[in-house]
Amino acid sequence: MSSPPPAPPATAVVVVAPGDLQGFVRELFERAGMPAEHARTVADVLVWANLRGIDSHGVLRIPRYVEMIDTGVVNPEATITIRTETPAALLIEADRAIGPVALTFAMRAAAGKAREAGVGLAFVRATTHTAALGYYTLKAAEEGLAAIALAGSWPNMAYHGARAAGVSTSPISIAVPRADGAPVVLDIGTGVVAVGKLTQARKTGQPIPPGWALDSDGNPTTDPARAEIPLPLGGPKGSGLALMFELITSLIVANPILADHLDGTPGGQRHKQNALALAIDIARFTDLASFRKEVDGLVRILKGLPRDPAVLEILMPGERGHRTLQQRTRQDIPIPRAIMNDLSSLARKFGLTPPGSG
Length: 358
Description:
The protein is of the alpha+beta class. The protein contains eleven helices and 14 strands.
């Protein structure tokens, strides 16, 4: 479709200016114990997700992030270090840093390596929820790089053929620059639906479609209050990708997640994530301006293909999100009232005024 996803009914939302929301999130995490720079990074990443319509990875996540700080899962004052380094790669010890801080550091480091060696790879060990990976790859693409990011996490999605969680809804993002327009950026999870979307449906009482999730007993459900286990995207394809992401992120850095959790290993029930960020300096391999034009040319060809009658427009990865960002930048961000109630509770906890209350 050519238009951004519709906002919830006006009576069910609070509309908040992006700057106000960003300032609120930044100050909240500062009061939760983060250094100002880290709090600013988290605010940038979460509000960016809401601006692009990725509400499942936006401020909805704040209560969970604060809970992880309070319980010691997230280290708000993490010291990120380099454990291993080669001319083109490095292993980052994240020290349980919140994901947006660790992944921002990693993509910058990968980009630096790419400028030196043509390709840069950063492994991230022992971080927490990485938020929307498209934020990090898009930043690299805006600098003329191609970028890939992926992450592994605890088992929350059914492995194909199983009735229980065995793998994670592990995400992947790929972005490349264009000559005319925003970069092409793919940002998807390996599940049919993100866990955050199930959370939002549960909080707002919205029914979910068949084929999205199982309940705690492994039975298919459309009741958001009972939906707990997302199903893999494309059946064996999604669960296979999720498995491989665990092997290439967690096992390579000697920090297994899935097996430790499923086997009940001490510490295995504690939330943690691993990730990698890859950057490619396109200019090392071809003329960057020509590459950008080739991307534009292919986009034009694809958008000019005969359309399915039910489709208004053929869209490229990231195009809908960019349009939503433009719209929400002009018209502000709609936050479901149920989510805003959670934010208001946190505002009282930290002595803040919730956004949109004036």
